[in-house]
Amino acid sequence: MIKEEYSSTENDITSAQIEHLEAVDSWGGASHSVSYVYRPATKEQLYEIFNLAQRSGRTVGLRGGGQSYGDAAMNSENILLDMRRMNRVLAWDPMTGIVRVEPGVTISQLWQYILEDGWWPPVVTGTSYTTIGGCAGMNVHGKNAYQVGPIGDHILEFDMMLLSGETITCSRQDNSDLFFAAIGGFGMLGIFTSITMQMKRVYSGYLDVFTQTQNNLDGMFEYFETYVDSSDYIVGWIDAFAKGSALGRGDVHRANYLPPGADLAPSQSLRLDNQHLSPNMFGVMPRSIVWLFMRPFMNNLGTSLVNRAKQISGYFGGSRQYRQTHAAFHFLLDYVPDWKNAYGSGGLIQYQPFIPKETAHDAFADILRLCQRRGILNYLTVFKRHRPDEFLMRHGLDGYSMAMDFRVTDARREPIEKLAFEMDEIVLAAGGRFYLAKDSTLRPAVAEAYLGKATIEKFKAVKRKYDPQDLLQTDLWRRIFADL
């Protein structure tokens, strides 16, 4: 079908492409577009689509699991490649833990493929539905970013197909300019056709998990700094409604892998049957409908009441220790299918700044107070620790991030964008950075301020070298970088 489109006249091409016209939304549901969506399964089909794009004068954007909150995986009125059909595990060595996969393999597919051999992906996102190609393109991080860095730190090499049809193998030694720019390069340099990674050896299907309530932001930071060297994972949840001496209060979960011998029956705990989430909550309520019960609380009053109840429960419950499966601990966003629907038809915008440890406390306190003054509070706030990485378009640094979900309505959209602009100034003044996988509001001047002109020009030079026709584009690229 694709070959027939390419060999036809220009009018015929346009007519055939209309069959591929689809509505495409951001994962957050606050951005909408229409694109010509293709679903290639082979490199040959990719090359045919490249030719079609050149013939029809359209750009090409990439989309993996469609989990980016903003417009990073959207290419309005142009071609969009849904990569999920390129989803084979190409090679797996259970002795060394080295795996080679196609870009459409999801985190879910990967961990289920390797876990029973005693391995786990070294970095996973809060949902298991992200693809490895998308994770590499955004250089995603997890709850252990401060220990192991982003996913790019565990990629040994990759094959990248250029729009010329040439495939290049890249590593830290070979074609290193493309290696360090494409990981975190948000799909603007070429298309991953295979990715080779090192997995993490585990000796049990369980983690030792510890939870504790913190009374304010001081306690949150103190807890993280106390346990950062002795924990494999740490993540915090902050109540954005708390004020005064309780500003920044919330819960912290930290976890550690079990050492060899601690699990008396690892062959059982590593079985996939013992990892999967039950389809029901509390044994009776289908998880697929839970978001319906969440929706009435997705407002300032409802969320503040839920947060207050959670705080009281944590206060009386004290510190807790228990064992939890890897899947249950990591993929909290998968606990409630389609939970984002609870925000309503307007969706959500997430704002996630990364701030150095020296300035993070005051900057996050200023951001929380600013949101309260503007009356635009976020309903989910996730707090993480990070470390720097070596990639060109990095977001990581020696510090903290605070991801905040803002419910979007027609009345709130413009105020949220203005609030984001105000928060940008706080982040820049604190020496912070931003995360393109989550971004919906970043402006070119802000990107230039935190990345620096030299970094952006170096990235564009790599793009001119490997994509000289500038065929690879997305809405995010045009919004932020095209005119810099």
Provide the fold topology.
Elements: H1 2-7, H2 10-18, E1 21-25, E2 32-38, H3 43-56, E3 60-63, E4 79-82, E5 89-93, E6 98-101, H4 107-114, E7 119-120, H5 132-138, H6 145-148, E8 155-161, E9 167-171, H7 176-182, E10 191-198, E11 200-201, E12 206-214, H8 217-227, E13 233-238, E14 250-257, H9 266-269, E15 280-281, E16 285-286, H10 290-294, H11 300-317, E17 320-325, H12 326-330, E18 348-351, E19 353-356, H13 357-374, E20 380-386, E21 399-407, H14 413-429, E22 433-434, H15 444-451, H16 453-466, H17 475-481
Parallel strand pairs: 2-4, 3-4
Antiparallel strand pairs: 1-2, 5-6, 6-10, 7-11, 8-9, 8-10, 12-14, 12-17, 13-14, 13-20, 15-16, 18-21, 19-21, 19-22, 20-21
Helix pairs in contact: 13-14
Give a verbal description of the structure.
With 484 residues, the chain is α+β, with helices and mostly antiparallel strands. The chain has three domains: 83 residues, Uridine Diphospho-n-acetylenolpyruvylglucosamine Reductase, domain 2, CATH 3.30.43.10; 116 residues, 2-Layer Sandwich (Uridine Diphospho-n-acetylenolpyruvylglucosamine Reductase, domain 3), CATH 3.30.465.10; 238 residues, Alpha-Beta Plaits. 33% of the residues lie in helices and 23% in strands. The protein has 17 helices and 22 strands. The strands form five sheets. Strands 12, 13, 14, 17, 18, 19, 20, 21 and 22 form a nine-stranded antiparallel sheet that branches. Strand 5 and strand 6 form a beta hairpin. Helix 13 packs antiparallel against helix 14. The longest helix has 18 residues. The radius of gyration is 22 Å and the shape is globular. The N terminus is likely disordered.
